[in-house]
Design goal:
By secondary structure, this protein is α/β, with parallel strands linked by helices. Strands 1, 2, 3, 4, 5, 6, 7 and 8 form an eight-stranded mixed sheet that branches. Helix 7 crosses helix 11. The chain is globular.
């Protein structure tokens, strides 16, 4: 699954996505000298933090705009443009397996999960840590329902693609099949306030950009109004502003074999 990312907006209007991943960095607890792969690194916020902790980091992402910003702002770190479902050590410019893999808010954009997890296992040494957070079951259910309903209301025959939002059991089974031992896996709700002035429609315009790109220009404002009305009815708006109905899945897995 792909999306048309706006790297600058991702770091500003929706910068909370990266900030919430800081807790996952603490869970990884990278040590100086460790070789760490940042899978789905985006603009490199966490790769920079890992490097500051003394780790030797390679960031991998499939989006050119995200990586261009990462390379421009963090030239001291190695960033590689690659498909997470199709890469090997040689594609990352290294010859020694990694000691750990970190990933935040990226795995749920990768529908070929079995291939992704197999690739991650293939670049890790035995005993290496794989620590990640991703969207879990029921993530953004109301946001997506608001967009789908608004499109139907306007008579627009446009499909809203589904992310890979697994349960704990589904993701644990996928990790085990790829050669990992799951040490921790947890699902939790994280209702996430949007920045002041940012609405549910704005969220969908960014994270469902491929859908909005298909909407005729004269109907964009009409769609925004319909999305916000439906999202409000589903409880995503309060006196304090708008909230995204996030549900997250966090795991720690160890490479076996």
């Amino acid at each position: 699954m792909t999306n048309a990312w706006n790297a600058q907006q991702y770091d500003t209007t929706f910068g909370f996505v990266g900030r919430y991943g800081d807790d996952v960095l603490a869970l990884l607890d990278a040590k100086p000298g460790e070789r760490v792969l940042d899978l789905g690194c985006g603009t490199g916020r966490h790769a920079e933090a890992l490097a500051a902790a003394g780790a030797v980091v390679v960031g991998l992402d499939a989006d050119e705009d995200m990586l261009a910003k990462a390379k421009r702002e963090r030239p001291q770190i190695s960033f590689v443009l690659a498909d997470a479902a199709d890469f090997a050590l040689s594609d990352l410019g290294v010859g020694v397996p990694f000691d750990a893999c970190f990933s935040n808010a990226a795995l749920h954009w990768m529908p070929r999960q079995a291939a992704v997890l197999a690739n991650v296992r293939g670049v890790l040494r035995s005993g290496a840590r794989f620590v990640a957070e991703m969207g879990g079951a029921q993530n953004i259910a109301s946001l997506d329902a608001s967009l789908r309903g608004a499109l139907d209301e306007l008579g627009l025959d446009i499909t809203v693609p589904a992310n890979y939002f697994p349960t704990v059991g589904q993701q644990s089974a996928a990790l085990e099949a790829a050669g990992f031992r799951v040490e921790l896996a947890t699902w939790f709700r994280r209702p996430t306030p949007l920045n002041p002035g940012t609405t549910a429609a704005d969220w969908t315009r960014h994270f469902r950009a491929m859908v909005w790109a298909e909407v005729p220009a004269p109907r964009l404002d009409e769609l925004a109004v319909a999305v916000d009305r439906r999202a409000s009815a589903l409880g995503l708006r309060s006196e304090d502003g708008w909230t995204a109905d996030y549900c997250r899945l966090r795991f720690v897995a160890i490479a076996e074999g």
